[in-house]
Amino acid sequence: MALDADKILSFLFQLLVGIQLIAVAVLYVNVLPFPDPPPQKISNLTGLPTWNADSPHFTAINETVGVVKYVAAFITGVLAIICVYIKVHKKPPAQTPVDEPPIGNQPAAEEIIWTKLLFNTIITGYIIVTFIALITGAIFELGKLWSAFGIYHNVLELCLAAALLQRGTFNYIIGLIVIVVYSISAVAITSQLEWYWDVTFFKFQGKIIYFVIISIYY
């Protein structure tokens, strides 16, 4: 009996949501009772507080969070590969793109090529910006100063979500306004929050974009 690809994808998405909720529950149980955040570590380079703390109990919590995070990321990656495999085999045969008649001296345009180029450009930019965020994090250490660099990692994720939602096409003016407002707001709010709320807010707003991308893709 042939399996319905849409039902399989729906099941995998529900399974993924369930796994993430279990991961949140495991983290919640392991960090109770919530301790008061210890003093922040000071960066040797900038002399500014970082998002690190010298505390055995806090270190143990971070290790637990790290293990659960990587396990959840591995499972998510495996499910994503399965979904890509299903979508590729479900995809109808590609049709030859039809050239649009040229207007004036403008060359013919093929929307499918432009769409792929846009998406690939965003992916390339995302990889570059992520690398820059890692390098700046290693130099300055994660903190409010680093958030000014790390936010561009989230900005490119927002562009990926827009590309998936709009099938690779979106209004550049509206997109630019959203990017500027989002990046300035996120960094400004992070800079005004006290430790440990600053790092919590910055990481949480980034995770929301991850979930949006996964929801759009599935």
TrEMBL record:
The chain crosses the membrane at residues 12-31, 67-86, 117-140, 146-165, 172-189, 195-217. Keywords: Membrane, Transmembrane, Transmembrane helix. The keyword Membrane applies. It comes from the Eukaryota. This is 6288_t:CDS:1. It comes from Racocetra fulgida. The lineage of its organism: Eukaryota, Fungi, Fungi incertae sedis, Mucoromycota, Glomeromycotina.
